[in-house]
Amino acid sequence: MRFIHIADTHLDASFSYLTQKQNLGELRRLEQRESLRVLIDYIKTENIPYLFIAGDFYEQEHIRLSTIQYVNNLFKEIPNTTIFISPGNHDPYIKNSYYNSFNWNPNVKIFDSNFQVCEFEDVCIYGFGFTDFTCTNFDLNNLKVKNNNKLNILVIHSSLDSSKTLDRGWNPIPLKAIENAGFDYVALGHIHKTNLEENTNIIYSGSTLSLGLDEPGNHGAISVTLDKNNFKADFIKLDNREFITEIINVSEISSTEDLLQLIHTLSNNKNNFYKFILNGKRNFVVNTNNILKLLQKENILKIKDETTSNYNLTEIASQNNLKGIFVKNMLDKINDENKE
């Protein structure tokens, strides 16, 4: 059988760190829609019979009815594809959620907190959904395959083997429990980076689009061909942008102009968003606000100064001469601007 596995789309996310850059937040939300359209076109072309969405499909706090209508219209374009959604901690199946109140297309199946199995001719599909913004009540006794003669697939949003206190509210399930349950494939959501390269059938698809600078690399969907003996999983890139963090050692840079030229060169891919971390011993005054203004590039989100001075500027500023007065004034100006 064939299917598509996605998770952590986070439709209508606020992208608050991008809204400071003109309309980039709204642009990113449009790109979320576009990535889904591309995926639906792929499903139509390849005649994929199943689509699994393993939670955090949208942001309950920010989701708009127009976005839900857009998504449902896309789902109407693939009537022969059965779509299974397992709500997560950002899109729980609560009273006022669109999972509960919206009239979804008949090919959409939404799981709730009752562990369920949908049985087809050749496959059993199991699912469980959050019904609140946290989940700690999953009954591990449910992790049982009912029919070993069929393919068995689990779709769930979970933080496997959670050790952090914060993660314990996000449906922590021991990895060993899932391994012992005997599923042929486990479609996971919650972790925004895919583990596709690992030798396992328990897979996080990662987020369909990168949500920020802490999510580098490629993002998209997993296309799977599965039978009882093995499976083949391929990555489908859906995000045309990458969030990139570059570290620049300024020790060998002698001026602001040279630094500007280097940053401009490193950020020349207009599709990507960049954060620059400056470190090393500086031989000139570093003013990150001024550097951002001089660059005038919308795809540079942040410049962080972690440099140390080659000179003891505080000592120089205390000198009662022209040089000391100049350095003191410059330090005061930098401190004032960095507070803005």
Question: Summary?
Answer:
The protein has nine helices and 16 strands. It has helices at residues 16-19, 24-46, 65-76, 98-101, 175-181, 256-266, 288-295, 313-317, 322-338, and strands spanning 2-6, 50-53, 82-85, 108-110, 116-119, 123-127, 151-157, 185-189, 202-204, 220-226, 231-237, 243-249, 273-279, 281-282, 300-305, 308-309.
Which value, in Å, is the CA radius of gyration? Answer: 25 Å
Helix percent reads: 25-40%
Strand content: 15-25%
- Globally, the shape reads elongated
Report on the biggest sheet: 6 strands, mixed
Q: What structural class is derived from the secondary structure elements?
A: alpha/beta
Distance between the termini: 57 Å
Q: Counting H and I runs of at least 4 residues, what is the number of helices? A: 9
Which blocks of ≥5 consecutive residues have pLDDT under 50? Answer: none
What's the order of the H and E elements?
EHHEHEHEEEEHEEEEEHEEHEEHH
Strands, count: 16
- Chain-averaged pLDDT: 92
Strand order of the main beta sheet, please? 4-3-2-1-10-11
